[in-house]
Structure formats: C-alpha cells, structure tokens
Amino acid sequence: TGSEEGFWAPYVESLPGAELVDALPVGWRDEDLERRVKGTALLDEVRSTRAELAALADALALTGVHDIDKPDGMFPSADFGVGRLTWAYAVFWSRAIVLRLPGGFGGGFGGGGGTEFLVPLFDMCNHRAGATAELRVRGGYVELLAGRAVTCGEEVCINYGAKGNGELLRYHGFVVPRNLADVCPLPLAQLAPHQGVTPAQMRERLALAEKLRLPLRVFLFGGSGGDASGAGAPGAPSAGTGGGARAGRVP
Fold it and tell me: Do residues 97 and 119 lie in contact, with contact meaning Cβ atoms separated by under 8 Å?
C-alpha cells in the first residue's frame, strides 16, 4: 500500500519492481505480446488476465467512494490501480510456493490441499531440472533441505515442477530449451474441419460437445520425464516437490 512501516516492510521493499512486470507477458506491450506469442494459448490467457485485473481495479475504485471520511474511496487508485494490481499479480505468481500445512489447512487456488504463500528468501531460489532441494514445514518453520552435499558458495536450486514453457513464461519469465514437460493446448474450435465436414457441421459438433460437457481442447505433450515431479497451483511450485519460485529473466 506504499507504507514504509510494519513488520513486512523490509521484505516488501526487497521485492522486484517494474522490471519484473516488464519481464512477464502480462506486462509486455501489445505489439510485443502479439509478435512473441501469436498463435499460442498464452496470448488469450494473458489478455484474459489483463481484463480481470482491469475489472478488479474498476470495482475497487468504486468501493467506499460515498464515504465522507474516504473521498478517494477505500482503495485509492494510486495504490490499487491496474498498474499496482498487475505488479502484485506478477510478484505473487512468480514467487508463490504451495505449502501443505499440518492438519490439512488450506485449499489454495489450485486445490490439492496446499495453500500458496510468499516465503521470504526461499522464493528467490532459481529453477533447475533434477534439483533435489526440498521445502518442508516443520514445527512452525519452513526448512530448505538441499538433498545432497553442497559446497560453500554453491547455489542451491529447486525444481519448479512439471511445467510447460507456456506456464513458465507466463508466471516466471523464462522458458526451458527441450523442456520434456512442455505441453501445447489445442482448442478444437481452431481446427480446420475434416474432409467432408462443413464448417456448419463442425460448429454443431462443438456445440453438442459443450452441451455434453466434453473437453473442447486437447493437449499435446512434449515428452515424459525431466521435470515431471508434479506441479501445484498454476505458477506456484509445490513444497512437496522441492518448489519455490523466482521471477525473472526476459526470454
């Protein structure tokens, strides 16, 4: 909220700023977004996210505007405008870690019994395929176990999980060459009709499939193995798989 006071102020101050937003598709200029990811599912996903953030900013701007004690509303645009919300979105999803707390607390955005958290220091860990480091919750503390012997000064990386390059780029700002966990969603509506099937018949079949709640897209997988350690919530590595997140690098 712009305040420089409070227990978490030093952590908030350490978080990346506009450079993070610029590194992620949600912050790219329209022409760059179109040029880089045209023809992929990521284009529509980013546009949808932008629309949701804009709608949230509009809704917040109208909250409490009639309160005489708060002429700027409960959520001033300087702190809760679309620019600040985009930054918050980028910070959270590029760094969030799914922790499964004792007692089964939480459900998280992605389900699976975990809840997304920002964990200071650990959320700066970089990704490496096959990394053995693991995060655990024990006795009210979060521990990072290297899983192997490390030398002084050596970087301890973690495995973000089985994430395709579209998800890695969308939330973390990088892609992995020859990513065996890569996946390409293929919307059936974008496929050309089979030989002998007219466009009208294709639309009828898609409408019927939607009515029957059948999948309207298929997924093409790049391979198996590699980072196939199971992801948590979208964009949020799981502590059970050595997860953590760091935002990052312009691809």
Answer: yes
In sequence order, the 6+-apart residues with CB closer than 8 A to the CB of 249 are 23, 173, 174
pTM of the full structure: 0.73
Q: Which of 235, 236, 247 has its CA nearest to residue 14? A: 247
Cβ-proximal residues to 216 (8 Å cutoff; 6+ apart), any chain: 187, 188, 189, 206, 209, 210
Half-sphere exposure of 190 (CA within 13 A, CB side): 9
Answer yes or no: are the C-beta atoms of 15 and 119 closer than 8 Å.
Answer: no
Judge whether 133 and 121 are in contact, CB under 8 Å: no
pLDDT in tens, 41-68: 899 999 999 999 999 999 988 876 556 5
What is residue 172's predicted lDDT score, i.e. its pLDDT?
A: 94
CB 237 within 8 A of CB 97: yes
State the SS3 of 41-101: HHHHHHHHHHHHHHHHHHHHHCCCCCCCCCCCCCCCHHHHCHHHHHHHHHHHHHHCEEECC
- Whether residue 159 contacts residue 130, with contact meaning beta carbons closer than 8 Å, is answered with yes
**CB of 181 within 8 A of CB of 228?**
yes
Distance CA 231, CA 237 (A): 6
Whole-Å CA distances, 102 to 113, 136, 138, 232? 10, 11, 8, 17
Query: What stretch of H or E contains 141?
Result: strand 141-145
Q: Are 43 and 33 in contact (CB under 8 A)?
A: yes
What six digits make up the tokens of 24?
A: 């992620």
Q: Give the tens place of pLDDT for each residue, 118-152.
A: 999 999 999 988 888 888 888 888 899 988 999 99
